[in-house]
Amino acid sequence: GQNIDQPTEMTATEGAIVQINCTYQTSGFNGLFWYQQHAGEAPTFLSYNVLDGLEEKGRFSSFLSRSKGYSYLLLKELQMKDSASYLCAVTNNFNKFYFGSGTKLNVKP
Amino acid sequence: DGGITQSPKYLFRKEGQNVTLSCEQNLNHDAMYWYRQDPGQGLRLIYYSQIVNDFQKGDIAEGYSVSREKKESFPLTVTSAQKNPTAFYLCASQGGQGGDTQYFGPGTRLTVL
Question: pLDDT exceeding 90 applies to what percent of chain A?
């Protein structure tokens, strides 16, 4: 089966750095995605990792360790608009996506 | 513009009625998916289709049905057998290759009165 865990909620200050962790157990791992979802809206793609290491994209970076079943999303220079839920999703060899419950990030002034 | 659309945005249904949610994409994607999201929860897979005229059950298929007669369209019917249908429904499409992201429609919020 699939099991994906993320913290339920986090709070950080504008301008700071925050790390959102995701651990997973899956068979036939074929990549890990991070999505951002504002309340009442659809998720939007942030990053994709399939090999171990860090992928950097502007203020957002994502890290993957396949041997540990672990990923994190790093958000730098936080802005108020970054207040949203962040979803971790794992795919398998059959192109099925398995989503975590999401981490609600609150950015305070 | 290429994209994925869902209609309607808000839908109200009386208990015991079937209702069909529309999902259309012009991205030429092979794979399409339906998810359900409850407040404060992640996405749970209802049905998915990797190719026209073929689809598979997801984790919570009971009380739902789908069809995939055209590549562009993947409608979802919420039947009266679904005991707790009030939720936010998201449709997604994907190119079908490993590593391709899913693109989501704007969602339909279904409320059963």
Answer: 85
